[in-house]
Amino acid sequence: MTNINEARELWMETAYEAGDDIPLPSSDDSYSGKLLVRMPKSLHRRLAETAEREGVSLNQYILFLLSAAKN
After folding, report:
1. CA-to-CA distance for 22 and 28, rounded, in angstroms?
2. What are the sequence ranges of the domains in the chain?
3. Residue among 29, 25, 28, 27 at smallest CA distance from 12
4. What is d(CA 25, CA 12) in angstroms, rounded to the nearest whole number?
5. What confidence tens digit (pLDDT) does each residue in 12-66 have?
């Protein structure tokens, strides 16, 4: 599963950098709870390093930050 996710992320990064269209996932639900966010590599690294120091996954850490910023 890790390799599948990595391959998907690499494909999307390559397509994005080449200016290719990246189709949105199809779904019958209006809100799946998933969100793809493009960010600078330096920000990704900082978030990942902080999440690791906190002992949580990157997804959990970003969710925490988003929840705390709701005000």
Report:
1. 19
2. 2-68
3. 25
4. 12
5. 888 889 998 888 777 666 777 888 899 999 999 999 999 999 999 999 999 999 8
Place of tokens 């850490």: 61
Give the C-alpha separation, 68 to 71, whole Å: 7
Question: H or E segment at 9?
Answer: helix 2-17
Of 56, 58, 63, 64, residue with least CA distance to 46 = 58
Give residues with Cβ within 8 angstroms of 32, minimum separation 6: 25
Nearest Cα to Cα of residue 48 among 66, 36, 60, 33: 60
